[in-house]
């Protein structure tokens, strides 16, 4: 049986399983899931663009998601690691998010966008206080690790950063997406697609997730590991 057909046929059981995976209420038009995507100078383009596109599609199809692109400080224009210029219309407001997505940006390169973010003590203090569900994409997981969220917990990240993630106290799982309740981590770059589709399934159901896969001509890869 073709994969999408199987997933649609098993949507009811998948939704039930997703509901048990989190204590958060299912999103709806009356109570939309508020998802903020952090975009900072030197960020890896696909790390945030891919999940932003998935969640924006979910917003369009269901009216049960609100997506917001935010900078660590105030509205600005950034240049991504690949030279893309992006207008970021909002400053970060942690109290206005149910989910915060933190993308990577050159963990193995000294002076990269991610390292500058990690050296911003004011931002890191605010990040450590976040109560929303945290989603790390690629080496964005290392920012969550630096804030103390991965210590003693299952997590994944880009292959080049897994050793450091383990050294910082995480239990590294070799899965494309790791869901530990209020902490979701994704592997390298394109895994943000899979992480975002998993979020759609978790909060809005398997039927919508597979519909978005069909529209985007993309099939999820690898494993979603759940605690």
TrEMBL record:
Organism domain of life: Bacteria
DJ-1/PfpI domain: residues covered: 34-196
Pfam family for this entry, one: DJ-1_PfpI
InterPro entries: Class_I_gatase-like, DJ-1/PfpI, INH-QAR, TAT_signal
Keywords attached to this entry: Signal
Signal as UniProt keyword: yes
Signal peptide region: 1-26
PROSITE patterns named among the record's database cross-references: TAT
Entries under PANTHER family matching the protein: ARAC-FAMILY TRANSCRIPTIONAL REGULATOR, HTH-TYPE TRANSCRIPTIONAL REGULATOR RV1931C
Protein name (record): Transcriptional regulator
Gene source species: Kibdelosporangium persicum
């Amino acid at each position: 049986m073709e994969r999408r057909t199987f997933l649609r046929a098993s949507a009811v059981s998948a939704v039930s399983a997703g509901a048990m995976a989190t204590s958060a209420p299912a999103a709806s038009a009356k109570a939309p899931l508020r998802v903020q995507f952090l975009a900072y100078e030197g960020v890896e383009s696909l790390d945030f663009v891919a999940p932003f596109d998935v969640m924006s599609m979910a917003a369009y199809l269901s009216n049960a998601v609100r997506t917001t692109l935010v900078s660590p400080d105030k509205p600005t224009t950034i240049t991504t690691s690949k030279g893309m210029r992006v207008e970021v219309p909002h400053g970060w407001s942690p109290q206005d998010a149910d989910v915060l997505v933190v993308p990577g940006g050159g963990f193995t390169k000294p002076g990269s966008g991610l390292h500058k973010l990690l050296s911003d003590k004011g931002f890191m203090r605010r990040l450590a206080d976040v109560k929303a569900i945290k989603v790390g994409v690629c080496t964005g997981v290392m920012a969550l690790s630096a804030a103390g969220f991965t210590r003693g917990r299952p997590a994944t990240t880009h292959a080049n950063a897994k050793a450091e993630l383990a050294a910082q106290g995480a239990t590294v799982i070799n899965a494309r997406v790791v869901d530990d309740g209020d902490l979701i981590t994704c592997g390298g770059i394109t895994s943000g697609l899979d992480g975002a589709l998993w979020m759609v399934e978790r909060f809005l159901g398997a039927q919508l997730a597979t519909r978005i896969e069909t529209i985007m001509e993309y099939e999820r890869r690898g494993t979603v590991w759940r605690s």
